[in-house]
Design goal:
heterotrimer, A alpha+beta, B alpha/beta, C mainly beta, A: alpha+beta, Arc Repressor Mutant, subunit A, 2 domains, seven-stranded antiparallel beta sheet, two-stranded antiparallel ribbon, 8 helices, 20% strand, elongated, C: mainly beta, Ubiquitin-like (UB roll), five-stranded mixed beta sheet, three-stranded mixed beta sheet, globular
Chain lengths: 282, 372, 106
């Protein structure tokens, strides 16, 4: 499921207007627009030379594909900023063909064997690159056409070239550690720093709040959190949240830390010198 | 003394588009930025932007950055880099130029486009080298072209976490997973789908419980993650230890509002937009006459909205100086607000649209009380 | 040295004039104009300072000059934010202890 897992299931795709329909897929090469959320975006509409893609007057409308007008030319593939358009051809007897955007190195060459991945990045088998386009109009998005095993045209959405593994999940994952306890971090969460610059711990800040320092400024005066080089830019928001949690109030009720000039570290000598110092006299 | 009509603080997407819009209408505009390079965070955005094709959707962020820089240059905007704006006072705006000269400017209008800073996430081990902001990762890999680590755990599945994960893969790093405390992915599904099909697992309802150090405490050696129950507490026995040298944090942004605070602007709170935000009207003017806010400082959103808000503040500031005939200015503002409304629709935008509207309403109420 | 020498979107790493910096006594190559921290990461150096109270190693955190996690002593000046300070040929950079000390300026 897109929202939970970050990829579309076939059933989700079949419901969107960018899906050309099973009937069209069974008889022609056609584009599939895997765009399922109403985001403000419309370049695909103008990309199609035959007017087969429609977004309409509301920029957040989902793009619709007209399979009759679509010739499967693939011009739209590199124009979608979301890289969500593919052209698929399920009509060949011994293989399917998928045209997809590709923005990694190395680029594959025509004729090269590549690994085929599905929408989750799972390996499905091997395919052969039929064509690769790096036309200038594509603005550095390569468009790769791959022959994939028959029956996988609706599944294959990525390739792995020269065995380069892009993600790294496969190795290095250690599952639940001993006795189901959280592994001991390098430090107790209470000793965890909230203010990096002045090295003030969570415990010190909570104590200050409990002693009555209920604004970011008061916590700062008591603990020095926010008095360091970064002037509270890192810890201010965390301190506000801790105050809100301790008081059981919404974080919006905690006033922001007051700010004083200069808002950036400036050497005092600058002010002493004023405007008259020549540039090279440091 | 710098003589200028409009001073823009921050040379990111909002600041540069504010400057371009105001300069186009004949205002003398100076942009200051504390960094040595302009563009704010635009130059690390190497993906194609969403939005309306009328407003550069489908173009990569850094290309938008180059186009904006060309534009402000051709319009005669002065861009002062390595220039820190340290305060806004009744007598003027304080600048420190190249760490040396203290200069006071008296602009007629100010546009604050100072952006936002990343929220930290505290967990045992979070101060170890190797625990870094996602923005820092993006800057290093995309702008400076150096890897931050080889195996990365991303914390947070909003658009920043998803996009930076994808960019890590593009840079040659491995992303071992993305953890998200909520039961669903925070960012756009299309961004999630890109990293998923590359094989990156997304652990929803999970959090990072600690970063484990290497033997001499100089680097992250592993991350421990665990599943969360409905009360957002880690469930014992669900821990996983992941071998990583980097833990990237992408848990939201906070508007950088110090200058508005010092200038005396009134604030409001919106958790959705990043916290305490300067109150502003529909021209993006704060409660301080002539002080405007645009982009993330007026509520954290996307780069695309920052570009449009910048234009709006630029038009409003120039119009208030009489640089644009009133009818034309109103027409322009209406057109930009419409485009902003477009960008704030759909399941991701609706709530932001309401939050922004509440800010404008609160401002109107406050003004009503004053004039009554 | 670790550099992202080729990139699907950004292309090959552009040429840059080389400069030399000295880090804790060791001479290292860097690319002109890059921040000190980028050069250090390219050389696999991830610790920029040792915290004052807990003596804990610290390094890159925000990368845009706001958190001060990566400050070092540069040419005798302590608390220089290395993520936003460009390298210059001949720069002398030291891992900073705590808040650092003003050294002999070059």
């Amino acid at each position: 499921m897109l929202e939970r897992d970050g990829y579309l299931e076939i059933e989700e795709i079949e419901r969107i207007p960018g899906f050309p329909g099973r009937e069209a897929l069974s008889r022609k090469k056609v584009a599939i627009l895997e765009c399922a959320q109403e985001i403000p975006c419309d370049p695909c509409e103008a990309a199609c030379p035959r007017g087969a893609i429609t977004v309409g007057s509301r920029i957040t409308n989902l793009p619709a594909i007209d399979p009759e007008r679509c010739t499967g030319c693939g011009t739209c593939v590199a124009r979608c900023p979301g890289l969500a358009i593919f052209v698929i051809d399920l009509t060949k007897p011994d293989h399917d063909v998928v045209t997809m955007p590709y923005e990694y190195l190395p680029l594959p060459e025509a004729g090269q064997e590549v690994a085929c991945l599905d929408r989750r990045g799972a390996m499905l088998g091997s395919g052969r690159v039929k064509r690769i386009s790096t036309a200038k109009a594509n603005d550095r998005t390569a468009v790769v056409t791959v022959e994939v095993p028959k029956g996988l045209g609706m599944e294959v959405r990525a390739i792995r070239v020269n065995g380069r593994v892009l993600a790294g999940e496969l190795e290095g994952v250690k599952e639940p550690s001993k006795e189901g306890l959280l592994p001991q971090g390098p430090e107790d969460p209470d000793d965890m720093l909230i203010c990096r610059c002045e090295e003030v711990t969570r415990k010190e800040i909570i104590e200050a709040i409990r002693e009555g320092a209920v604004t970011v400024d008061a916590v700062k005066r008591r603990t020095r959190a926010g008095m360091g080089l970064c002037q509270g830019r890192n810890c201010g928001k965390t301190v506000s949240r801790l105050i809100a949690e301790e008081l059981g109030k919404p974080v919006s009720s905690v006033p922001p830390a007051s700010k004083r000039p200069p808002v950036r570290p400036v050497k005092l000598s600058v002010f002493a010198a004023g405007e008259d110092v020549p540039d090279d006299d440091k | 003394m710098i003589d200028t009509d409009i001073l823009v603080v921050g040379a990111g997407p909002a600041g540069l588009s504010a400057a371009a819009e105001a300069a186009r209408h004949g205002a003398r505009v100076t942009v200051v930025d504390e960094n040595e390079k302009p563009g704010g965070q635009l130059f690390k955005q190497i993906h194609k932007f969403f939005g309306s094709r009328r407003h550069r959707a489908g173009v990569r962020g850094f290309d938008i950055g180059y186009a904006l820089l060309d534009e402000v240059k051709s319009l005669g905007v002065e861009v002062m880099l390595d220039t820190v704006c340290y305060g806004i006072f009744p007598e003027g705006v304080g600048l420190v130029v190249s760490g040396k000269r203290d200069v006071l400017v008296e602009p007629r209008r100010i546009v604050l486009a100072t952006g936002a800073s990343e929220n930290p996430l505290c967990f045992p081990g979070w101060t170890l080298p190797g625990v870094v902001g996602a923005g820092a990762v993006q800057t290093m890999i995309n702008v400076h072209r150096v890897p931050v680590g080889e195996r990365v755990l991303m914390v947070g599945s909003g658009n920043v976490g998803l996009i930076v994960s994808y960019q890590l893969l593009q840079s040659g790093a491995q992303v071992v997973g993305i953890v998200e405390a909520l039961p669903k992915v925070g960012g756009y599904g299309v961004h999630a789908a890109k990293v998923r099909r590359a094989g990156v697992p997304i652990y929803t309802s999970h959090t990072v419980v600690s970063a484990l150090p290497n033997s001499d405490n100089t680097r992250v050696k592993a991350a421990v993650i665990a599943r969360l129950d409905e009360n957002m507490s880690p469930i014992p026995g669900t821990e996983k230890e992941l071998d990583v040298d980097t833990i990237a944090i992408a848990v939201g942004l906070t508007p950088m509002t110090e200058l508005a605070f010092i200038a005396g602007a009134a604030f409001t709170y919106s958790g959705l937009l990043g916290g305490h935000i300067p109150l502003h009207d529909e021209d993006l003017m704060t409660t301080v006459e002539g002080l405007y806010v645009a982009g993330d400082v007026s509520g954290v959103e996307e780069a695309s909205t920052a570009l449009e808000e910048g234009r709006l503040a630029g038009v409003a500031a120039a119009a208030s100086l009489g640089k644009i005939p009133e009818v034309e200015a109103e027409e322009k503002k209406r057109e930009i607000r419409e485009s902003l409304r477009d960008l704030r629709t759909g399941p991701f935008g609706d709530a932001r649209a309401r939050a922004k509207e509440e800010i404008v309403n609160e401002m109107a109420k406050r003004r009503g009380k004053r004039s009554a | 040295m670790k550099r992202i020498s080729d990139h699907p979107i950004l292309g090959p790493l552009p040429e840059a004039r080389e400069v030399w910096i000295t880090v804790d006594g060791e001479r290292l190559q860097a690319r002109e104009g890059e921040p000190i921290l980028a050069a250090l990461l390219a050389h696999g150096i991830h610790v920029q300072n040792i915290s004052r109270k807990k003596k804990a190693p610290r390094g890159l955190f925000c990368g845009i000059g706001r958190c001060t996690g990566c400050v070092m002593t540069v040419d005798g000046v302590p608390n220089v934010r290395t993520c936003v300070t460009p390298v210059r040929d001949g720069m002398v950079i030291e891992t900073q202890e705590g808040l650092g000390k003003w050294g002999d300026r070059k």
